[in-house]
Amino acid sequence: MSNDIIAIDIEINADDVVSKLDKLKKALKDKMLMEAIGSDIAAYSRRRIASRNNTAPDGSQWESLAASTIRAKQRKGKGDMGTLMQKPKLLDSIAINPATLTEDSISIGSSLVYAMIHQKGGMAGKGRKVKIPARPYIGVSAKEKDMIDKMVQDWIKRILEG
């Protein structure tokens, strides 16, 4: 067995890699990717309510409406409407917040006063005597996360090939 060392010289030209990284940085700065992701998450959330499946982003079921709420809806002729749908304002209000748009983040929500209590639950009504259960409607399911991942991969591919 020989103690000879074999030397191999490898030269890497990183200009192409640097150029592609610069393209990605420039594309991120225009914030279009985050805006597209935010728009999709808002759409997923609106569909979640409109589907009447009463399902949170994590797949758990929302707590059923109280019997008193169902009776009140029926008296108003809205008994067949789904949970969180008595007033379609919530559904219509879900949107990205352009003021929060950055290269790597975006906020999705509603500016309605009662939106947060439906998302997180809490006490409401006169004297805060009515317990509203959390019914998370804004978020990303596992399937939606996969779709966003695919969108990001496709976006990166388009930027690098373009």
Features:
mainly alpha, 162 residues, 6 helices, two-stranded antiparallel ribbon, two-stranded antiparallel sheet, elongated
Q: What does this protein structure show overall?
A:
This protein has a two-stranded antiparallel ribbon. It is mainly alpha-helical and 162 residues long. The protein is elongated and about 90 Å long. Helix 2 (32-50) packs antiparallel against helix 6 (142-161). The chain has six helices and four strands; from the N terminus they run H-H-H-H-E-E-H-E-E-H. It starts with 14 loop residues before the first helix and ends with a helix. It has helices at residues 15-29, 32-50, 67-75, 89-93, 115-120, 142-161; strands at 95-97, 107-109, 122-124, 130-132. It has one domain. The model has no long low-confidence stretch (mean pLDDT 88).
Mean pLDDT: 88
Report the radius of gyration as a whole number of Å. Answer: 24 Å
Q: Name the helix and strand elements from N-terminus to C-terminus, one letter apiece.
A: HHHHEEHEEH
Class of secondary structure makeup: mainly alpha
Report the count of strand segments.
Answer: 4
Strand adjacency order, main sheet:
1-2
- Helix tally equals 6
Q: Portion of residues in helices? A: 40-55%
* Uncertain runs: none
**Tally of domains:** 1
How would the global form be characterised?
elongated
Task: Kindly estimate the percentage of residues that lie in beta strands according to DSSP.
Answer: 5-15%
Distance between the termini: 52 Å
Question: Largest beta sheet, briefly?
Answer: 2 strands, antiparallel
